[in-house]
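Continuing the series of single-chain predictions for the mutant panel. This is the parent chain; the variants come on the following pages.
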Amino acid sequence: MSIRRILTFPEPFLRETARPVENITGDTAKWIDDMAQTMYAAPGIGLAAPQVGLDQRIIVLDVAPDDDEEPGKDRGKHLIHVVNPVIVEADGETTFEEGCLSVVDFRAEVDRAARVLVRGWNLDQQEIEIEADGLLAVALQHEIDHLEGTLFIDRLSRLKRELYVKRVKKALREGRPIAQRRAASESN
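Parent structure:
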């Protein structure tokens, strides 16, 4: 398993639509393991393959609270992974404050569906369905957006989005790093 480098805005690859996984193989399992380790190390609650430079429709999530006395003791116990996820039903409305490992140092309230039904595949090549509400529903929508090249800032008002974009552009002009989200061990 390897911790991967997380791409950050304004990296153009984050705006690409990910390709469907044609065959679930050992490589798919390796990528899921790497993505999970990267997500936990960041730390985050979700990660989509494009965020680590992989042009595949794969997401990993773990929204369970980390209540353990020993940090990392049960990491992975609540890991959800979905290959080729699709939202097949969505209803209701909710607003959650979101952040993103690819949108550094910025959080904002985002309107999303309150409940979703997601269909996809697991590593055993079995079709799965996840019915979710609350934080899990929001996280599923957020990660599936990444597969379409959409960032949560795209769901904000134009003013809020432009303020963040200006801040990032200023940092880039001044040669300041936007993020230090580099992996402890990179192996792309």
